Structure of AMP-dependent acyl-CoA synthetase:
Amino acid sequence: MRLVDYLDKGASLDPDAPCLTTDGESRTYAEVRELTGRIASALKACGVRPGDRVAILSANDPTAFTCVFGISLAGAVWCPVNPRNEAAENRELLDLFGCKALIYQDRFAPLVKDIRDDLPALTTLVRFDDPAEWDAFLALGEEYVDEPARDDLAMIVGTGGTTGRPKGVELTGTNLETMTAITLMSYPFDGRPVYLALAPLTHAAGVLCFPVLALGGEIVVMRGPGIGVFLDLLQTHKVTHTFLPPTLIYMVLAHECLDDTDLSSLQCFWYGAAPIAPARLDEALRRIGPVMAQLFGQTEAPMMISTMAPRDHFRGDGTIATERLASAGRPAPLVTVAIMGHDGELKRRRETGEIVVRGSLVMRGYHRDPAATAAASAHGWHHTGDIGYLDEDNYLYIVDREKDMVITGGFNVYSTEVEQAIMQHPAVQDCAVVGLPDDKWGERVTAVVQLRTGHLASRAEISAFVHDRLGGVKTPKQIEIWPDLPRSKVGKVLKRDIKVTLMS
């Protein structure tokens, strides 16, 4: 399926149903489909041909998201660009992708001005929220004739900018169709879904729209963050599905209005993009309800390497299965997952190694980077870079990112294990554990902690708390308490920034 086919599927169920809703105003499937055709026609008039790359630079916005379908209908390739990136990184990505057109929000005009002279291939630029410019762009098109895609390539997504030149992940229509099928197979969908998108549509929150559209669902788009607004929209729109990374879930749990919000419509509250503390997940199951649903994936294998539906968080007698809360669920139905050692041999149950994946969920490759593609697919499996194991019930446990493991005094210490112990402390809101150079230990386990509002805890208290649970080797030798932690555009804690700050 092309990306526009999900919109067409929803429109076939009820063209007059609300499709995209923002700030209380809705556009029906028929209206979104009509605008999609006009966008595709205008792109064609500007010289965009099947296979060309078209970028979108915008915060969450219904018109920007409609452009995704216009790009697809034109047979072009969608290149989402994160508006929170630095200008240099976005220039590098647009150059790497070879983008021919850029559709952007007026608020990012200064960024576009800074980079456009360095991008000679970029021949079409249009601001969709400048009425005169947008109307003139749409007026370029004529009645649209559907252009078949040159191949199955649907989107190119930037990733990996922390270790040098960013890479572009090539995702095909087949990859996203597999992800959509897994979503519909693995999670509850009762009736017409209403999906609330707070997280950026350039990332996980965006691709989760496709299964919702396939069911003729409504997508409620939040233009900006705000936990209070998020809770209000859950209630007023009777939202059935939503997604947040753990950091934002912690903020939901800390919000004063949570316990007074009617969440009875919720069927599935997805969490993912980073490990969640089991103690906080237990709290969410009790306070938000038995609707929490985990997904684990990465850009190269989008979203659904493993899944844990709401029911899997509970035992047969209805009690919370606390022993599973640290897992990432079971391998998804259309994905094969294994654990591999450095020699390429597969491990047995409960043996730790790198998590590797096979199946049609896995990317086509890194754009214009055959060496990186070959390295990621060594031994015939896609290498995730995550360390973990499978238990006897086929639940997947992610121990750490390979690069985040701390080797101290000859012992391997997995940062996520220490983080989970710290997060059990009632005063802790969030934390990150890193390894810093140490003359005696090689690396010393170092924790940076953010406390909950109105709570106090000393470094010594936190150290003793962890020591009682993990022993001396894994207890951080250095603990820092910060008012907040540096985070990425999607809410992930930036360990690299923490290490730079601590070492400066």
Q: What stands out?
A: The two ends are 50 Å apart (CA to CA). The CA atoms of residues 18 and 28 lie 4 Å apart.
